[in-house]
Design brief:
Number of helices: 32
Strand content: 15-25%
Distance between the termini: 84 Å
Structural class: alpha/beta
């Protein structure tokens, strides 16, 4: 135990507190900074006398409390970078000082002004005070009286060891301890007058009343008690807005209030703030506040939805009638952070700044989040939200601070959860709270942390807000779903036909919930529409249209309270009022004598006989012009029998894709003798030409014979190979394999996670798993967003199509470096091949023309491959996909 050298430096005050203990945190509740200043010199002298370091943490705008000339070490700490960096630097300062140090903080009320949040002030104290205690150090925290709500005062009062009220009356300082932990005297909690060297208890009732009534007491009024910085600012802004609507001359005040609220709850990103300034007003921000639980920012997903709607309404009044109204609620980012702090999850999360791959720490943090508890007042607000929605299905969506921003989509990295919202009130509340916890836990998933690490975001202030939306659609028997849903891109990266204009945009359509449009389905397809030629399909004939039509519908089963996939044919065969003729057409069969069969989801009438295509194209054009950047949006649309419809725009964000898809110059003198791979679509990515240093190839003929357990083992092996050179090796890798990469069904492809294959430059899907499986062009899915954010070129090799060439024999006879990289993987040498350039005297080069939808990987020069008897194959030895041998 450290010898107790702690003192206030004022002997009389030490006697009031019955001495100070190692680890004491002292909060001084004051009316003015000047009321605290008399306590600082004694503190400095106490540290000097004890021979201990005194560190002054300087961050507020008020005059310095002490100067460096007093033997004080002054540490300037920046607040503008956000809470996470601030608390990280504070804790680093406390740790670096060692045990038994003295600390002096600027007035911490300044922090609630900067963060506009009493909750975050409370979080700061709960993360700082115990650290001082654990280090057996000592700290002074001045705090202004009457400024803070219970969200700050309760955690501060609960956590500190000593809380003292300070009053100045007729020039005399008075103190009245309200909490002194583990000490007591009969006069300790009395009002004391500081006179000379003595602190004299005051027992005269008249004097006590005179001193305490000199300033207004907040009283027992619960509304006033809750008013912190947040509500004070919004209530004042509300009064300004009322006067503005009355025509009063308050333009300057309204503009200032708008700027303040914008950075308090909407965004602090300069690009977003500039955009919001053009399309939102003070009334819009106050409307968000009225539908908000907690404090803090509403996050990127909420911002995108609100901005997109505002842009459309301000551009043309007709969008107000076409768009479904939204009645969403917002759960502020401070709720998330407070939940982590109060449930002991913060430190696990904080350690990920330094080691994002610590799976045990992440697991423990997620476990604590799932079993944690919300305070009763917050649960009451959740219950009130559910009362508003009654028994309408809702979706709780992630909306983090960095999500859906310029440069970072976070597509599919965080969870969103549907709530059927059926049954007794308590069950619905329990389901809602479970959904919130699920999303909070997803912030510490391996895929989310790896994404942040890859993009250099681990030290950024990332907090999770939530967007609670009514599910768009209507009830059909026991099912609930929207008529159609989809994803729209203002730039079309999949130009499969010369008539397609990439700038016209595209949509990816599904019938039912949009989950089937944004999640890559293993067993189904969607309708991809180029908006300037909507009737033109990638499929070449009626048989392909049938094969690649959507077969399953995602919907909410209200009786089962879960999202299910139901066969479209089942829904189409039920009586009801769905105008299916807008989206479905009879299967015309094959041949002139075959009678039309069941309905197929072709969306033909939707695309040719309604305003849907022109509306989608115009919507995307307006949003891209406003953002000055391509955009990616999610939507639903609900139709009536007469063809009229309304669109629900549920999400909008900058599309993380290069806009230059100009053709590259085709390399000369490429013959079939040195052609390794050739494809004429589907190709997604930008045009490019660069060397390929390594090919990782999963052999289709071997993989198809493996058990599912072995297929999972191969998937893990592929991930280890691709990360053998580090998280993002400079080596350009082409990954080729059978079926769909990233499938959850091993019979359909290789079940890797995207984080396992994110180091590749080129991803190739070869159709050899089974006859009915075709690689799905995943435009608009989370898988697609991962590809474009990592600048990975995607290509599919289709069976029996002209222009698709695959030199399988070369890949299977070239030297395999697998055991050199991972000696323990020898048993998989037949299933997984690692081929490095050069092959003999030949390097490998990739050439891709996105506009022409052509890709070639070729050898730079012909020559023998060392270690084999293989000479580069001529045209008669090239293996075309679907062939049974190489001749």
């Amino acid at each position: 135990m450290i010898q107790n050298h702690f003192s206030t430096g004022i002997a009389g005050l030490d006697r009031v507190f019955r001495g100070l203990l190692p680890g004491d945190n002292l909060v001084w509740h004051i009316d003015e900074i000047d009321d605290f200043l008399p306590f600082a010199p004694g503190y400095c002298s106490a540290a000097d006398k004890a021979g201990k370091r005194l560190i002054y943490l300087r961050f507020a705008e008020h005059a310095p409390l002490v100067s460096a000339s007093d033997g004080v070490e002054v540490r300037e700490i920046e607040t503008a970078a956000g809470f996470e960096r601030f608390i990280t630097e504070v804790r680093a300062t406390l740790r670096e000082a060692g045990r038994g140090a003295f600390f002096l903080f600027d007035c911490i009320s300044f922090l609630s002004e900067i963060w506009a949040s009493d909750r975050m002030l409370g979080n700061f104290f709960m993360l700082s005070c115990p650290y001082v205690y654990d280090m057996e150090s000592m700290a002074y925290f001045p705090l202004m009286r009457g400024l803070h709500s219970s969200h700050a005062m309760e955690p501060i009062t609960r956590t500190t060891q000593i809380l003292t009220e300070v009053y100045r009356h007729h020039g005399i300082i008075h103190v009245q301890p309200s909490k002194v932990e583990h000490r007591y005297s009969s006069t300790m909690y009395m009002l004391h007058a500081w006179e000379g060297a003595h602190f004299t208890p005051i027992s005269d009732s008249a004097t006590i009343a005179e001193i305490l009534t000199e300033r207004p007491w907040p009283g027992l009024d619960a509304v006033r008690f809750r008013l912190g910085k947040w509500n004070r600012v919004f209530l004042e802004s509300e009064r300004i807005r009322e006067r503005q609507l009355q025509g009063k001359p308050v333009a300057k005040k309204a503009a200032a209030a708008f700027r303040t609220l914008l950075t308090m709850l909407f965004s602090r990103d300069e690009q977003v703030v500039e955009l919001a300034g053009r399309y939102l007003d003070l009334g819009d921000l106050l409307a968000i506040w009225r539908r908000m639980i907690g404090t803090g920012l509403i996050g990127g997903k909420s911002v995108g939805m609100l901005l997109a709607r505002a842009i459309l309404r301000r551009t043309d009044a007709r969008w107000g009638a076409l768009l479904e109204p939204h009645d969403s609620f917002f759960i502020g980012s401070d709720i998330y952070y407070s939940y982590l702090v109060e449930n002991g999850c913060w430190l696990n999360r904080h350690r990920q700044h330094y080691r994002a791959d610590d799976a045990d720490d992440l697991h423990e943090a997620r476990r604590r989040i799932i079993i944690g508890r919300f305070p009763d007042d917050l649960i009451a607000e959740f219950a009130e939200l559910l009362d508003y929605f009654s028994q309408s299905p809702i979706i709780v969506r992630s909306s983090s601070l960095l999500e859906d921003s310029y440069g970072n989509a976070f597509a599919g990295k965080y969870e969103s959860v549907f709530c059927a919202n059926q049954g007794p009130h308590q069950k619905r509340l329990d389901d809602f709270i479970a959904a919130v916890k699920t999303i909070y836990a997803s912030t510490l998933s391996e895929k989310a942390m790896r994404y942040r690490a890859q993009r250099g975001l681990l030290d950024r202030d990332e907090q999770m807000s939530l967007l609670v939306q009514r599910v768009s659609g209507s009830r059909h028997d026991t099912y609930f779903f929207p008529f159609i849903a989809g994803v729209g891109l203002s730039r079309n990266p999949y130009v499969w036909n010369p008539l397609i204009d990439p700038k016209a945009g595209m949509v990816r359509l599904v019938f039912g919930l949009g989950t089937r449009a944004v999640d890559r389905s293993d067993d189904d397809y969607t309708r991809v529409v180029a908006l300037n030629v909507p009737r033109r399909r990638p499929e070449s004939d009626a048989a392909e249209v049938r094969q690649y039509s959507q077969r399953h519908v995602d919907l909410i089963d209200l009786d089962a309270s879960q999202v299910l996939a139901v066969e479209f044919s089942t829904l189409a065969g039920q009586p009801g009022d769905l105008p299916l003729d807008i989206v479905a057409s009879p299967d015309q069969g094959i041949g002139a004598d075959v009678r039309p069969g069941p309905l197929l989801l072709t969306f033909d009438r939707l695309l040719s006989q309604t305003q849907f295509v022109s509306d989608m194209r115009e919507m995307l054009r307006i949003l891209e012009a406003a953002y000055a950047h391509p955009v990616d949006m999610e939507f639903t649309a609900n139709f009536k029998a007469d063809g009229s419809y309304r669109v629900n725009l549920v999400q909008c964000r900058p599309l993380q894709i290069a806009t230059d898809v100009a053709s590259t110059t085709e390399p000369a003198m490429i013959t079939e003798d040195n052609l390794l791979i050739a494809s004429t679509g589907a190709v997604i990515g930008t045009s490019r030409q660069h060397p390929i240093e390594r090919v990782v190839y999963v052999t289709p003929s071997i993989y198809s014979q493996l058990t599912n357990q072995d297929r999972y083992a191969v998937a893990r092996l592929v991930g280890r190979i691709l990360h053998a050179g580090g998280p993002r090796s400079e080596r350009r890798i082409l990954l080729a394999g059978p079926g769909r990469w990233g499938t959850t069904t091993p019979s359909l492809g290789v079940p890797v996670g995207f984080a396992e294959i994110d180091t590749v430059a080129v991803l190739c899907e070869i159709v050899t798993m089974h006859e009915g499986l075709i690689p799905d062009v995943s435009l608009g899915t989370h898988f697609f967003n991962d590809l474009v954010e990592m600048d990975i070129l995607y290509l599919a090799l289709f069976p029996e199509r002209t222009g698709h060439v695959f030199n399988q024999l070369l890949l299977e006879q070239a030297p395999n470096r697998l055991t050199e990289i991972l000696p323990e993987a020898a048993r998989w040498s037949a299933a997984v091949r690692v081929i490095d350039a050069p092959l003999g005297s030949s390097g490998m080069t990739l050439w891709a023309d996105a506009l022409e939808q052509r890709v070639m990987c070729y050898l730079d020069a012909a020559g023998p491959v060392p270690g084999t008897e293989l000479t580069l194959l001529g045209a008669d030895r090239l293996l075309r996909i679907g062939s049974t041998d190489a001749d």
